[in-house]
Amino acid sequence: MRGEEERGPDGYRSGFVTIIGRPNVGKSTLMNALVGMELAITSAKPQTTRKNMRTVLTLEEGQLVFVDTPGIHKARNPLGEYMDRSAEKTINEVDCVLMLAEPVSCVPPGEKHILELLEKADVPAVLAINKIDTVKKNELLPAIDAYSKAFPFRHIVPVSAKNAEGLEELTRVLLSLMPEGAPLYDEDTVTEETERELVGELIRQAALRNLHDEVPHGVAVSIESMKEEERLWRISANIYCEKNSHKGMIIGKGGTMLKRIGSAARRDAEKLLNKHVALDLFVKVKKDWRESEKAVRSFGYRDETD
Question: pLDDT tens-digit profile of 4-16?
């Protein structure tokens, strides 16, 4: 409960919104579009997001703190278990749950578990039907009907995160469900993530977008050093993989793949840091690290209470 000293201007609302859904429904793309910055990494591959990430949207009438979560899926290893735990835990810790789904005429079996979690939660839930740019308008009605029968969502809002369509309506709906109160963050705050964490994710994003088959899911990144100088940032990072054969794929013939990953990561890091970046990448093997709880924790995938 907020005290009088925590009240904002009359009618000002602020609160936390967790974004949940199956892998690859566009949660990170939507969050980036809502805050107007590319902070959460994205790729066409499922399970890109591994950790919860907070971003902040500050408006004249209120402030929304979004929590982007890993896609909820059937975990097969300690990393997957951590990802599911991270996503599910946030549901009861926020002011509103924003579920993201695709415009289909029947609710996929994989979403039944998510709906069961929402039924147990004592928080309002909003559904955003994403990727409406991929279907005709008359195909939306069956999707809205199917989801409205599956769960009593407070609102159902069709959106296209890719084309920024429907986002104003979605923002208005979410703000209406927030409690009245002062801003939770300074108006200049956009994310809680450190520059070091963001750069590490940008390197992983570059690897995800350039590598194929099973290799990307076994990639982890560790920033070994990050030093700001007068004209540039000097950054050294390790890319870890699970097999020697994967190491060869990441490096590529004559180092071509590693150079491609490095160039893409450097460009994105320079946009983030607004300064030239000198980036050194090294590839190391940590055999089957996703199967080891200790290794998973060593890469920062750990519960807040650990």
Answer: 445 556 789 999 9
